[in-house]
Structure formats: C-alpha cells, structure tokens
Amino acid sequence: MAANFSRMDVRSGEVGGNSGITPTASLQAVAANEATDRALRRILRNIISLLSASSGLLAVYDAASDELVLTQYVGTTAPTVARRILLHQGILGEVAATKTLIVSDSLAHDTRYRPTDGKRTGSLLCVPLQEEDEFFGIVAVASDRLHGFGARHVACAEALADAAVLVLARAVQTESATAERRQLQTLVDAARTITAVLDPREIFEHIAGGIAGIVPYDDALIFAFDQPPQELVVIASQGERSLHLCGRRVALSDGTSFTARIAQTRTAALYSPDRVAIRPGRLTEAFLAGEELALLGVPLLSKDQLRGVLTLARARPFRDDDQRVMSELAPILATALENIALYAAVRAEQAQKTQFLQIISHEISTPLHNLNGFLDLMLTGVAGALDEKQRPLAQRARVSGEQLATQVRDLIVLAYEDAGTLTMNMLLFDMGRMLKETFDAMDLVARDAGVTLSAALAPMLPPYFGDSERLSQAARNLLSNAIAHTPRGGQVWLETRVVNRMLEISVADTGCGIAPEHLPRIFERFYRVSADPSKGSGGGQGLGLAIVKAIVDRHGGRVQVQSMPGQGSRFTLMLPLHRSGDLNPPPGGLSAAPTLPRSERKAD
C-alpha cells in the first residue's frame, strides 16, 4: 500500500483517526487565519508537486501540550478533524523532538512507522519548521516509491519549508502585536473602570470581557482578603459553576486550598488535574463540581498589601503566557479592591458623621432657635420694657445667637454635602415673606456692626418652588458676608427683581471690595479674603460663599459677582422661575413683598 498520512496512527506518534481533541495552541490559531491558511496550503501543494509526492501535511507545535497539531493536509483521503501527534513517537514526533530532518527511504523497513492497517510501502520526507531557537512545527511529504527523495528533493523541501517558516513567523508577530494591543486596551479600560466604579461586581463585569479576549476562561472568582479573621471571601464571580459561591470563605491558613496557597506565597500559580503537587482545596473542589478543570490563580497586591486573589478556570490547561498576562493585570484589580475598601470605610465614617450631625441638628439647633426666639420677645417688650443698660446686652446676645445659628446651619450643610446626603425640601413658598424674615433677622447683626441695612424688594414676587430654609440660609450668608466686609457707617442693600424668567436676589455693599485675583476662588471652602480691618477678626471661616453656591446649584441657578477694590461688591443669586401654569400658588394666595425704605434702618 502506498504511504498515506490519513492511515498513520496517533498512538504511535503519527496521524491517525479522530483524536477528539480541539486545537487550542496559539500557533494553531495563527495557522487557522484565512490568509495564513491559504499561504501554507499553497506552499504544501508546491512541495508535493515539485517533489512528485503523493500526499503531504503540515503540523504546528502546541507548546501548552507539547504536541504537534495537524493544520494542513493534501492527499486522496484528507482527515476531517484536527489530529494531534505526540513528540518522540513515530517519525513525525521524532523530527519535532530532535528538530532534525528525517528521510525514510523505505517505510517497510522503518520500525518507527506503524500504520493502522499493518501495511508498509513507499518513502517519507519530514522537515522541521524552525527559525533559530523558535520551533513552529513540521512539514512532511510521502511518496509511493522507495527512495523517492534524493538530495535535490531535500534541498527543495528545505527551501519551501523556510517559506512556510516565514509565513508563520510573520503571522505570529502580527497576532502577538494584536494580542498586546488587546492586553493594553484591557489594562486601559480596567484603569478607567476603577476610577468610575466602586462596586466589585460592576468592576469585574467591566473587565471580564477584556480578560476573556486575552486569556479565555469559562469561570472566574474574585476573592477579597478580609484581614481581621484572616480569610478570603468570594465577592464577585462569573460563570455557571461559580454563581453559588459568592460569600463563601477560605481560611488563609488552609494548607489544602489552591487559593489560600496563592495568598500565602503571594505568587501566581497554575493547576491542572494531572498535577498532584497542588491540591485544589474544599472551596475549589466545590467550584470544580467534580469536573477536571485547569485553574489559574494570581494574587492581588497593592502597596505590598494582599487585597485578594483572582482565580480563572477552563477545560484546557493554562499557559505560562496566560499567567504572565494576568499577573500584569492583577495590580489594577488590586487597586480596585483597595479603592473599594477605602470607599467603604469613608462611607461608614460619613454615615457616622451624618448620624452625629442629625443629633447635633436636633440637640443644638432646636434650643438655639428657642433662645433666639425668647431674645426677640424680650427686645419687642413682651416681657416688659428694657432699660438703657438691658437693651444693648439683649441685642448683643441676639446677634451672637444669630451668628452661632448661622455657623451651625453652615456646618450641617457642608457635612450633609460631604456625605452625599444633602437634599433640598422642594416646596412652593412665598419668596417675599421669606426674604422679609431674613432681612429682619440680619438687621440686628448689621446694627451691631454699625452698618445700615436696607432693602428694595420687587412687589408681588411670584411663588417660588424650592427649599425656603436653604435659600434663606444662602441670603443670610450673603448679608453676613457683606456686613463683615463693610466698614462702620457703610451700607448693605438687599434687592430683588424678575428678569427673563429669572428671579434675581442681590446683596450689595459699600465695603472694601475684592481684588480680581481673588474672584476665581471665593467660592472655594475655607478661602478667605480679609474682612474690613475695623471688624477685627470678622469674616468667618471662609465657608459661607461655598454654601451659597452649593444651595443655588441645587436649585438650577448660579451666582454672579461684581466687585472692585475700594468700591464694594454685589453678589446676585439668579434662580430660574417656573412657568405660571406649572405650579399652584401657596395657600392664601400671594403676599405683596414689603417695600422697605433704603435708608430708614440706621445703625445705632
């Protein structure tokens, strides 16, 4: 019988029947590329034609399994599936193992050749495909004749084999560059994700697709390191096998655990069922569910601290390149876990702060409000007329109470904003009445500072949909800021007008003004512009304007500033008005805004 590769037996190292193994090597994937496949097939056909051979094959080297995988065949009866060839067995396996050309002039006398039908005839030429130290595979041709391949045939086969090596080398370079681009894109996407997402499941879902593109897997688990109990806990998973494992824990001291061993050694590792040196451990066995799967585990380290472990699983073995790629990606995942832990700690601290401020709001603000109320009653004479010595003292106490109430309100707003819980109680309210009450509350502060406070409010202001308490706080802060920066004998005005569906609330003063270089930063927290020297340490802590902006921003408005050194300042809150048909007026209809004379409220 003539030599025919379709008859060769895989068990003896040559190509035989259906091996049932799916090709996985990167070289095989490269050879399967349409352009590469056409080029290799053309080269193989040329070899067969020039050497007058009856059939031929080309097999690439699978480094993961240390086998040859048939990718090209030309002959009378071509195999229908990919077949694998063991190294060191048979003629083809020996060529792959020794990287040496072999010519078998008579297969009938060659003990390395064992066909499945037992018949031996013809000759065989097999050439390794290699470039320096890089081995790509083998190309082999068979002839019906004995001594079918002479020196000329060998030289021709080697030349065409070099062409096949060139095709494969270029294809590998192209594939490597593509893989590196995919890997880099995955790293970039992962870096972007950890800056925008703080949920471990969301992070893993974002990154999982990129990982699968460079290191294919079937299932994956992310363990976070829980330091106080010294345990690894599953916080995210992908794949049907791992869905039931979220929340499961592994003790770091578990000597039988694959995952714990990676955490202990802080070194990436591969596991396959045929490697008995590493035991999978109880949790990993539950993960595998009795299946013989390969595992890849990498420690997640950030700032020399263990953050967790990433474990991947699939049916075929992982390669060293897979381990290298995942080791490069691991620091980004570790940073994500670190950020999540820090965020959780911050959120817990903010929750405690919010709870504390809620207590403060009730325990301090309520009695302070009552204190100011009683002082107002004393000043109005409800409890009897005050003499010339008592009235100034009561006024001073009322001013101090108002200043303290403002500081408490400001701190509460900032704390709620930091905690992400600052909300506006949006209701329809009478803006004119609210501004009059604010004006009255700040009148005593202005008198105590020796400043004349005046107002000119537009009549019949439309109802406004917003948080009256917060907007009153914004107006108080502007008035307080203006008073602090106005010398004794100066003036501060509160004015309103409606322009182009915008309600403008302005506070102007005859104070020291603000230099242009300060204007871009005056709404930053704790940024202070020196108050009027005559006010001593006045001017606050640099929080008032930051709070004004935060409140106005949440109402969809903006703050406008006009100021020149020595000429005073004007701050304007610009708040959008709703269309007349959008909302109903408050119960009892609209109130006319008070018309207050500009100069009737003089400083005492």
- Please give the radius of gyration in angstroms: 41 Å
How many E strands? 19
Annotation field: number of helices: 12
Strand line-up across the major sheet: 3-2-1-6-5-4
CATH topology description of the largest domain: Heat Shock Protein 90
Gross morphology:
elongated
Share in helix:
40-55%
Q: Helix/strand/pairing class, anyone?
A: alpha+beta
Q: Write the CATH homologous superfamily of the largest domain.
A: Histidine kinase-like ATPase, C-terminal domain
Molecular structure report:
This protein is α+β, with helices and mostly antiparallel strands. It folds into 3 domains: 5-176, GAF domain (Beta-Lactamase); 182-341, 2-Layer Sandwich (Beta-Lactamase); 424-604, Histidine kinase-like ATPase, C-terminal domain (Heat Shock Protein 90, 2-Layer Sandwich), CATH 3.30.565.10. Helices cover 40% and strands 21% of the residues. The chain has helices at 26-31, 34-50, 90-98, 151-196, 200-214, 258-265, 282-288, 320-380, 390-418, 431-448, 468-484, 544-553, and strands at residues 55-62, 67-74, 84-86, 102-104, 123-131, 134-143, 219-226, 231-238, 249-251, 269-271, 294-302, 305-314, 427-429, 452-456, 464-466, 491-499, 502-509, 558-563, 569-576. It has a 6-stranded antiparallel β-sheet, with helices on both faces. A 6-stranded antiparallel β-sheet has the order 9-8-7-12-11-10, with helices on both faces. A 5-stranded mixed β-sheet has the order 14-16-17-19-18. α4 packs antiparallel against α5 (200-214), α5 (200-214) packs antiparallel against α8 and α10 packs parallel to α11 (468-484). The protein is elongated, with a radius of gyration of 41 Å.
